[in-house]
């Protein structure tokens, strides 16, 4: 301690959702359910894309990248959050907190880059379908994956350096949040934080601002091309697909910028509202992406149904058929046999 401040603290404390500490154990239940559903959905999506060679196309490979990013992003947040809510494990090492911050913001930025790549892929597929396969080659897909990852990691890394090198004295070690977020840590410092705040905004607008502009332009051009299609069914199909994508896109970016600006200018917004929305904007996309981008896609939906039916038939043949003396057959055929025998 020096002049009422703490010099280079080794431990920080995450208190969860300020103002709702007494009900956090109940709030953790829906968050846990969201995490489990997101994990199952994304792992299932990855399994289907990996096992079906016909899905090894740019659109589905981008979906696989998005699934991996969603799994990583959710896993960076939920275990510690539930530890705070259910087991009161509020302590976190300072370096571990910085690592969590870097991972969360890096995966956020990677997800934004993948959403941009998916929007460009849809634009080329709808507006210039004859050149789609020649533009989105395997080499380009690899370059996009490496590019969005390096862009995120390199631009977010200086946030750690600026905190570690510039901020030495802290007013408190208590973080009013459920995870280590850049501005939540910076606002603890008693030193000058203007450079940290400015660089945080620079990263936000360099990555999210750049991506949102080009995603918006892509969908505007897609809508123009869709309304020019002669067949009404083709227009409705393309329009329905784009609306679902835009819904996820708006949810991700609107809540992201809400969080960024609330930290800096939203002093009148209750802290629990800000923290809840900050959690939702990171945890809802991993839940929605397998549904919006996966289940609504005909090829993936059919493959999921076929896989499910095969597993049901296998369980039936292994467990039910020997017990009742049915021949090896699916549950539908066996049910018809049982009904006819009665």
Number of helices: 11
For the biggest β-sheet, the strand order reads: 3-2-5
Radius of gyration, CA atoms, in whole angstroms = 24 Å
Number of strands: 5
Uncertain residue ranges? 338-342
Largest beta-sheet characterization: 3 strands, mixed
- The portion of residues assigned to helices is over 70%
Oligomer: single chain
The 3D shape can be described as globular
Average pLDDT for all residues:
85
**Main structural class:** mainly alpha
Amino-to-carboxy terminus distance: 83 Å
Residue fraction in strands: under 5%
* SSE run: EEHHEHHHEEHHHHHH
How would you concisely characterize the structure shown here?
This protein has 11 helices and 5 strands. The chain is mostly helical.
Task: Based on the model shown, name its key terms.
single chain; 342 residues; mainly alpha; three-stranded mixed β-sheet; two-stranded antiparallel sheet; 11 helices; globular; disordered C terminus
Describe the structure in your own words:
With 342 residues, the chain is mainly α. It is built from eleven helices and five strands. The protein has helices at 24-51, 58-87, 94-127, 132-135, 138-166, 182-186, 194-227, 232-265, 271-295, 298-324, 331-341, and strands at residues 6-7, 11-14, 91-93, 169-170, 174-175. The strands form two sheets. The chain has a three-stranded mixed sheet with strand order 3-2-5. A two-stranded antiparallel ribbon has the order 1-4. Helix 1 (24-51) packs antiparallel against helix 2 (58-87) and helix 7 packs antiparallel against helix 8. The radius of gyration is 24 Å and the shape is globular. The N and C termini lie far apart (83 Å). Residues 338-342 have low confidence and may be disordered.
């Amino acid at each position: 301690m020096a002049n009422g401040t703490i010099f280079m603290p080794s431990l920080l404390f995450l208190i969860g959702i300020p103002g709702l500490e007494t009900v956090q154990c109940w709030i953790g239940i829906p968050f846990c359910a969201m995490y489990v559903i997101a994990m199952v959905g994304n792992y299932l999506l990855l399994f289907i894309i990996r096992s079906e060679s016909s899905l090894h196309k740019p659109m589905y490979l981008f979906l696989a990248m998005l699934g991996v990013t969603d799994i990583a992003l959710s896993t960076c947040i939920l275990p510690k959050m539930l530890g705070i809510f259910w087991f009161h494990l509020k302590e976190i090492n300072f370096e571990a907190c910085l690592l969590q911050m870097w991972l969360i913001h890096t995966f956020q930025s990677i997800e934004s880059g993948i959403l941009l790549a998916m929007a460009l892929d849809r634009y080329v597929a709808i507006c210039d379908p004859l050149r789609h396969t020649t533009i989105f080659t395997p080499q380009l897909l690899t370059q996009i994956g490496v590019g969005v990852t390096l862009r995120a990691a390199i631009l977010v890394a200086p946030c750690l350096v600026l905190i570690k090198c510039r901020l030495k004295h802290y007013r408190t070690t208590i973080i009013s949040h459920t995870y280590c977020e850049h501005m939540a840590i910076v606002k603890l410092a008693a030193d000058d934080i203007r450079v940290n705040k400015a660089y945080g905004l620079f990263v936000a607008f360099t990555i999210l601002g750049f991506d949102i502009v080009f995603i918006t332009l892509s969908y505007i051009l897609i809508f123009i091309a869709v309304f020019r299609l002669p067949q009404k069914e083709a227009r409705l199909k393309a329009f329905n697909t784009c609306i679902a994508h835009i819904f996820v896109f708006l949810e991700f970016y609107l809540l992201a910028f809400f969080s960024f600006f609330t930290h800096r200018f939203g002093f009148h917004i209750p802290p629990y509202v800000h923290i809840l929305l900050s959690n939702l904007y990171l945890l809802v996309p991993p839940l929605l992406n397998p549904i919006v981008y996966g289940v609504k896609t005909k090829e993936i939906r059919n493959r999921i149904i076929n896989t499910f039916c095969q597993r049901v038939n296998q369980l039936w043949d292994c467990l039910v058929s020997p017990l009742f003396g049915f021949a090896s057959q699916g549950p539908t055929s066996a049910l018809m046999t049982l009904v006819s025998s009665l």
